[in-house]
Amino acid sequence: MLTAKQRFTAIPELLRFADDPQLDDKTHEWVVQALQDISGKRFGSDVRDWRAWWATQPQPPEPEAR
């Protein structure tokens, strides 16, 4: 099982998928469902609402280069 923090890191990629115009309707529903399950939020299928919410979330710092 992934931790909540690990699942949260999937959100940017899910948002990218949600914006993909080639995604079929069912897969888009699954992407939105995953966003809802991970975030606990219910913004429906409008990616603009999801992106607005994501912009307000604290982002972890980038790992330092070695």
Supply the helix-strand structural class: mainly alpha
Number of helices: 4
Average pLDDT score: 90
What's the count of strands? 0
Describe this protein with a few key phrases.
66 residues, mainly alpha, 4 helices, 0% strand, globular
Describe the overall structure:
- The chain has helices at residues 4-8, 11-18, 25-39, 47-55.
- It is mainly alpha-helical and 66 residues long.
- It is globular.
- It starts with a helix and ends in an 11-residue tail after the last helix.
- The model has no long low-confidence stretch (mean pLDDT 90).
Write the layout of secondary structure elements.
Layout: H1 4-8, H2 11-18, H3 25-39, H4 47-55
How would you sum up this structure in a few lines?
56% of the residues lie in helices and 0% in strands. It has 66 residues and is mostly helical. Helix 2 (11-18) packs antiparallel against helix 3 and helix 2 (11-18) runs antiparallel to helix 4.
